[in-house]
Amino acid sequence: MNKISLTIHYCQDALQLNDACTLLPQNMLGLVYTPHHSGFVHYREGQLIGENEHPISMQSVYEVRFFSPDFEMRWLHKDAGKGQVVCLGKVPATIQAWPTETLADLTAIPNRYLLWGQQSNKHSYKPGWSLLAEARIGRLPVPLENLSVNSSVHLHTCEYIGMAPGLAGAHGNRAVVEECWIELKESRQ
Question: Cystine design at 47: which of 20, 55, 125, 129 (Cβ 3.0–4.6 Å)?
Answer without folding.
Answer: 55
